[in-house]
Amino acid sequence: PRPILLTRHGESRDNVRGRIGGDAVLSEAGELYAKKLANFVEKRLKSERTASIWTSTLQRTILTASPIVGFPKIQWRALEEINAGVCDGMTYEEIKKNMPEEYVSRKKDKLRYRYPRGESYLDVIQRLEPVIIELERQRAPVVVISHQAVLRALYAYFADRPLKEIPDIEVPLHTIIEIQMGVTGVQEKRYKLMD
Ligand code: G3H
């Protein structure tokens, strides 16, 4: 068995302000998480020479990975957060107020709803296919540092959760989800590193 560790980036300054999308840096709490994560990964994968760290191309995941030393890091555009299109940078309150029809359509069918000039969950799931193929092919452990919508989809794939649940799966900040792929199936552990 070899572990796949899934985690969101540490809290970003946009998370603090409730803004979606963007390319913000980490908050103080987010920076602390990055250090704790590095500690955890170095201990957990100490004996694993070939492990690698995968991030998106956005600052908040790259900064979350930055305290981890001794493992190769790979950036994937496919690991970027769902593209909120015209709503990028807004809060949910602002969307509700300024674009009420969009807000309602998304609420009705979050899986299929596509942000104007952005993506739907189904789009995200589709663009993750090469990442999943590569994750399946790897023999060594992988630490995936990505974003909420993306991790919902990746988690659902490994935990065998139905498509329709994906947009509502809980993937909390500052928590590592460890997936073990063994011959007998998939096992899961969660490590909450901060409150
Ligand atoms: O910025 C996007 C969020 O991480 C995704 O959350 O799909 O529940 O709005 P949501």
Automatic annotation (TrEMBL):
**GO molecular-function term, one example from the UniProt record:** ATP binding
Membrane-spanning parts: none
Highest taxon, organism lineage: Eukaryota
From the UniProt record, give one GO term of the biological process aspect.
fructose 2,6-bisphosphate metabolic process
Instruction: Report keywords, A-Z.
Output: ATP-binding, Nucleotide-binding
> A single GO CC term, please?
cytosol
Q: What is this protein called?
A: CBM20 domain-containing protein
Native species of this protein? Musa balbisiana
Q: Which start and end residues of the full protein are shown?
A: 554 to 748 of 748
